[in-house]
Amino acid sequence: MATIESLLRAAALPDSPSAKLDAEWLLAAALDKPASYLRTWPEREVSSECEARFTADLARRRRGEPVAYILGRQGFWSLDLEVAPHTLIPRPDTELLVETALQLLPVTPADVLDLGTGTGAIALALAHERPGWCVTGVDRVVEAVALATRNAQRLRLDNALFYESRWFSALDGKRYALIVSNPPYIPAHDPHLRQGDVRFEPSTALIAGDDGLDDIRQIISSAPNHLSNDGWLLLEHGYDQASAVRELLAESGFVDIQSRRDFGGHERISLGRRP
After folding, report:
1. Which of 59, 149, 270, 274 could cross-link to 245 by cystine, CB 3.0-4.6 Å?
2. What is the C-alpha separation between 122 and 59, in angstroms, rounded?
3. 3-state SS class at 174
4. Count of domains for the chain
């Protein structure tokens, strides 16, 4: 019988930039143990059933499938979320959107909207941090709405609700103090679409026309009709799109327009206030 140490030593993942960590996550999941268990008990023998699952999961990772899809979960903010191939995998850079949103509004009750919610990551992080907020998440993909709802139920976040809607189409003129979105923003011919984990993610959640701004244009032009006076719109966008997004915000009458930088120093989100 193989040991934890021998399995990790043999787990070659040459195409992954986080090979060691990927293997640890996959083995910990096969054992149904935390990753710390692997370092504490490296000499422990692994059952044939667990080894078989680990071997199968490694094969999927070697083909390039993201670890989050293999495990069916991903951490975001302080939450552990269920994920699936019909939604984007929540990424650390998007936590900047949550952090900024929390700074803009007081702790007092407010209605907040998350457009294109996917797993519900942004909406659920906001609902978790602000129990007095009523957070609505919408997505055009019915499976994503069901997934986000399951995440809310498992996390017992009753102040987050999810509905099927193509951006604002099903919202019937309701207004919000804050609208946030991580919409598709990758140009259709971007070479990164054929690289790494994004090859396995849904293209409809990534691609937005020839310049990557089609969905952002639509959101910005429609948002004033769904924002309260002094309400804020926050958008994640590509590393080189901040100037264009600020210009679009200005054209739609937003004020106090600014951009914020991500962990890599790129202008990753832009925001504006409806006067």
Report:
1. 270
2. 31
3. coil
4. 2
Residue pair 115/183 in contact (Cβ under 8 Å)? The answer is: yes
Provide the residue-wise pLDDT of the chain in tens; the chain has 275 residues: 788 888 888 887 666 667 788 888 898 989 988 888 888 888 888 898 898 999 899 889 888 888 999 999 999 999 999 999 888 889 888 999 999 999 999 999 999 999 999 999 999 999 999 999 999 999 999 999 999 999 999 999 999 999 999 999 999 889 999 999 999 876 666 555 455 666 555 655 555 566 778 899 999 999 999 999 999 999 999 888 999 999 999 999 999 999 999 888 999 999 999 99
Q: How far is CA 221 from CA 117, 140, 172, 250, in A?
A: 19, 19, 16, 10
The CATH number of residue 92's host domain is: 3.40.50.150
Distance CA 265, CA 138 (A): 30
What domain range is 29 assigned to? 4-64
- The reply to whether 195 falls in a domain is yes
In a shared domain, residues 102 and 183: yes
Residues 95 and 153 occupy one common structural domain: yes
238 lies in the same domain as 141: yes
Task: Give domain status of residue 78, yes or no.
Answer: no
- On whether residue 237 sits in a domain, the answer given is yes
